[in-house]
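Cross-posted from the bioinformatics board.
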Amino acid sequence: MTKDAGYWYLASYPKSGNTWCRVFITELRRLSGESEQEELHLNQDISTGSIASSRLWLDDQLGINTCDLSFGELDPLRGNAGTSQWVFAEGERFHKTHDAFRSPDSRGRPVVSTQGCNGVVYLLRHPEDVAISLSNFFSWPIQRCIEFLIDSEAALIPSMRHGGGQVRQHMGRWDQHVRSWADQSILPVLTIRYEDMLGNAQETFTQLAQFLGLPSDSNLIEQTIINTSIEKLQTLEAKVGGFAEKPKGCDRFFRSGRSGEGAEQLSLEQRQRLEESLSATMKRFGYTGPTNQ
Amino acid sequence: MTLKSDIALPDLTEINEESPEIEHIEIRNTDHTAWPLLLDPNQHSTPCIKMVHQEWRLELEGIGWFRATNGQTLEWERWDDSVSDRDIRTFLVTSGLGALAIQRGELVVHGTALERDERAIALLGHPTTGKSTLAWCLLQQGWRLISSEVTVIKADRTIPLGPQQIKLWHDAAQKLGIEAVNLPLVRRGLKRYRITPPAQSLATAPTPLSAIYILNRSTNGDANNKDTLLGKIKVSEALNQQSGLLALRNQAFHARFYRGMNTEARLFMQATGCVRSTPVHRLHLPDDIQVMSEGLMQMDLLNPASPSKPEPGEREPFND
């Protein structure tokens, strides 16, 4: 791999399949001989790249302690980070991000670097299922997750009262997040629905591998899908005693992986509230709410 | 380093000596458009940082321009009139002085240094690893602050005086029981405070270094580490020289600055010399500040050869 190989973003609203996608890429590279790991190890191997909100990375790129900047000062600068990312992340080229492509503070600029970037895989999932998964992940009541999904100010690490390894990541409403990536015209984008990763895995993951310039031989893709099934990941998580990206209070990271849980577990009122707020984008990507069922 | 500055630097110790023998480094406001063009910046430059040998420039949109040259001068210009002196000195005293010290051949690390009984310890870790919180706890136990955030380790293993203010986030200040209402902000708009310890808690002279600690803060990612879950403060055995060297190199103050100014080889040599004569330990900090503070009282950080022993049946968490 050369410096000219460029890099990609794996972008998503949280709990929409980003980690699964990174595990898939890791395993695909292992099976194809691109990496030398003997077996997939969740807490050692799935570092496919940096997270675009990494404070360490931003500090390195900007030459300062980013704790000394406000959100309004940092967001416009973030797009400048990454052009020399090879120094920091040698050999890593698939960078995760949960940020919306632009933030209200970024002065219309992308909050991620676009220079040298080959493209973005945008992963999305039915917002009703995202609500259930968020609830499990953050240990939040479901109603709070519903409000979060339709909050135009929603962000990860939104507080200015403490620092942390990652900077604030503005996401906005679920539909704003989706459109910020799907409709931007700076980077080539491949939009993948979580439901297609589940229901039409061979075709979807082949598309993913081809877009990322990874080996896409059908047998290889098939074996990778088998090795990274939710059941296999649950077993691996149990084996390592908990996935490193699992927060406190969350029993297990790889929980059910199913689609349709939202429709089963949310109240009609909660589903209606999501649909009322997000309907245009839901329809655009083939998601139905209670009205059409 | 002694500095002659046209902008007030309350983070640093003021001296009133006027001696021709003292070499002053000049910090001055200049017009950045008059700075000579950098035609061929080093490959480690970024859109914000431009570097060649003995030349470092930082452009911070909305704040200002900064330039360190030949280890002798540090220039600055504010972006516009809305930028305060406080804004400028926040970056002068950290990135600016760090770059200048690197140009002067110093080993500069992300760290805070404290003194007790005329011996120093260095607490190293990138921003948000808990250096300031730990330093505050130690100050309450009689230690004195030598340098915060940017620390120089001299070739003779002494730590010179550096910035003597501690920056604390609002939440950390609250947990430490510090009344935040009247504390000065690091910068306007931030919920982060700049605390100057009382005079008796400030070191007044360079101090020989006794031990280096690499900080590890408890995070969610430590979920598999049972020791972490117990929330105890732990000191590792001294790292072997290779691990110590790697750990120290990883805490170099903006490693990119060393690369960009072609001084990385010197960094390795200095770090090698340092780990040969000074023990390097990992210090695991619990997330609970109260537990941290109580744990520190049971420890002798000046004599890390006798770290706290694990209890029977407990696994030693570090095995470098």
